[in-house]
Amino acid sequence: MSDASVDPAEVAKFSAIAAEWWDPAGKFAPLHKFNPVRLGFIRNEGCAHFGRDSRSLRPFEGLSLLDIGCGGGLLAEPMARLGFDVTGADASERNIGTAKTHAAQSGLKIDYRATTAEALAAEERSFDVVLNMEVVEHVADVTAYLGACTQLMKPGGITFVATMNKTLKSLALAKIGAEYVLGWLPRGTHDWNRFIPPTELKTSLEQSGLTILKTQGVSFDLLGWDWKLSPDVDVNYMVVAKRPA
Question: What is the pTM of this model?
Fold first, then answer.
């Protein structure tokens, strides 16, 4: 695919391990561990924004969601279970193949497409929620990518962007520690030079026309051996932003 934001080397990297997306002990084990805190945050912030009952089993009935860079569907599937009309998009055909197979096995109706943000924007698609989780550090042109993602948001809609801060702490923990010391991720998964400070990400989002609603840190609790929401944005963080109505 020739869209400006797509880095063919990054697509190839994740395509090579596409079959492992749903193995909780495989190469994506850290994402399986990370997923509950992401899901809880999205659910709570989404319910607050759209005035939905967080106690409901399917609080997002009638709302549409795009999971861009969806991989094998680790977020798309629980979002569908929460009531969203879900579209999952990924530049990797192999990722989409894995996602389609697992959704069919799970009895879930999700519109999975091997495509890009730019291509969807050109189709004039629009969604109430756009999930942009751990993707921006893998694209070739962050500005072009975020601009396309903003076009995909309905007026009054929100986006969740999760990525990693560019600090010495993130270099030590998210790159060297996770890939080379603990072996949580395959070596070469991340390029620290592509990590993005929150101020830089927020500026890019604002320049694309969005209003920042919240910035939330996520930290790994060594004692509890689990992820938790935290005021610390030195390594992992999430930003919620709104497209003005």
Answer: 0.86
